[in-house]
């Protein structure tokens, strides 16, 4: 454990491929007093890294935090080329095709891996890293600075599928599929990793009633998320048999913030298949011996979240809608 005690909100760095659930993760972090978002890096995944940065800048401005630095990161994975965006899931622009009010800010000059390295040194021992896209920037930062793991408090990463099927191939989850070499590097590094896989993210959902609550909020950020969710619901409705969506990225954010707690998260060896065969992109978690309850393997620093203490949906709505109520309440 590298952590040093911090008074007040914990500093967090978010690495994302700003699509729709990334937007929810970003909003959740902005509206969570437990954490202070100190920087955002983007990567190609749901959209190209440059478009993800545009979306992030616009969302931060809408959320009243235009001061937070945004760095464009890797356009291509460590090996090979970016496979292209997924408009059928996240819309042509990554945010469901809605037009966010354009921010006049630009990304910072440094790239995402450099921003991460700098923030890790500025907040040595205190920085929590959250990844909700392919982890190319993290792997690049690790290559550049082997001391990085010793500077970071912990890493929470949305990715993988431990005991359930993948969502791109039979075994591969999208973030890992888009850069398996980077995911392999992340879980192999000597730091505390909390892996938030499809096993739990698919079990946390938003409903149409939740979306209506966001649309009705007195907060433009919540309203924008409610609007973009229309497209995301269109993708997920056939999967769930009712209007709604999975909460992949915001669950990682909530676990990192400590507002949703893992109740079953054994520390077990995890390896990522980066070969070219049918197993490419699989996260192989060695869960042998877990039948009666979580059993941590000695010396292992990667936890695989298999269950949590509460559903995220109601909490996410409360944070996004409730904060606007608090913000707009008259001072007493
Ligand atoms: C992950 O893939 C992306 O499409 C989502 O934003 C999420 O990070 C889910 O597999
Ligand atoms: Ca994502």
Notes on the structure:
By secondary structure, the protein is α/β, with parallel strands linked by helices. The chain has helices at 20-30, 49-62, 87-90, 112-122, 136-144, 148-151, 174-178, 180-188, 198-201, 208-215, 220-240, 248-257, 312-328, and strands spanning 10-16, 35-42, 70-72, 127-131, 152-158, 193-196, 205-207, 244-246, 262-264, 270-272, 283-285, 302-304, 307-308. α1 runs parallel beside α2 (49-62), α1 (20-30) runs parallel beside α12 and α5 (136-144) crosses α8 (180-188). It starts with 9 loop residues before the first strand and ends with a helix. The model is unreliable at 324-332 (pLDDT under 50). It binds beta-D-ribofuranose and calcium ion (CA). Residues 16-17, 19, 21-22, 45-46, 132-133, 249 line the site of calcium ion.
């Amino acid at each position: 454990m590298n952590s040093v005690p911090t008074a007040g909100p914990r500093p967090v760095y978010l690495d994302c491929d700003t699509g729709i659930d990334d937007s929810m993760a970003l909003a959740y972090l902005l509206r969570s007093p437990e954490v202070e978002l100190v920087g955002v890096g983007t990567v190609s995944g749901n959209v190209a890294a440059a478009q993800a940065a545009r979306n992030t800048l616009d969302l931060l401005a809408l959320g009243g935090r235009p001061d937070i630095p945004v760095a464009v990161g890797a356009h291509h994975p460590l090996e090979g080329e970016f496979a292209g965006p997924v408009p059928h899931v996240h819309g042509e622009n990554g945010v469901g095709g809605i037009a966010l009010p354009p921010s006049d800010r630009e990304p910072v000059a440094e790239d995402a891996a450099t921003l991460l390295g700098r923030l890790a040194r500025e907040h040595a021992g205190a920085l929590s890293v959250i990844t909700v896209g392919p982890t190319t920037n993290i792997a690049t930062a690790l290559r550049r600075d082997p001391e990085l793991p010793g500077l970071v408090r912990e890493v929470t990463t949305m990715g993988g599928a431990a005991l359930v099927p993948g969502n791109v191939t039979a075994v591969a989850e999208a973030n890992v599929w888009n850069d398996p070499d980077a995911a392999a590097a992340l879980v192999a590094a000597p730091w505390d990793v909390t892996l938030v896989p499809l096993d739990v993210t698919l079990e946390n959902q938003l409903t149409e009633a939740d979306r209506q609550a966001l649309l009705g909020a007195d907060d433009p950020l919540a309203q924008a998320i409610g609007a973009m969710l229309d497209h995301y619901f269109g993708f997920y409705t056939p999967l769930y048999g009712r209007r709604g969506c999975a909460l992949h990225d915001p669950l990682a954010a909530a676990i990192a913030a400590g507002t949703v707690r893992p109740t079953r998260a054994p520390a077990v060896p995890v390896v990522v298949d980066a070969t070219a065969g049918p197993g490419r992109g699989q996260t192989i978690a060695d869960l042998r011996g877990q039948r009666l309850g979580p059993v941590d393997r000695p010396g292992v620093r990667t936890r695989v979240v298999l269950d949590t203490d509460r559903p995220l949906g109601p909490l996410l709505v409360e944070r996004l809608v409730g904060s606007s109520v608090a913000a707009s309440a008259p001072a007493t």
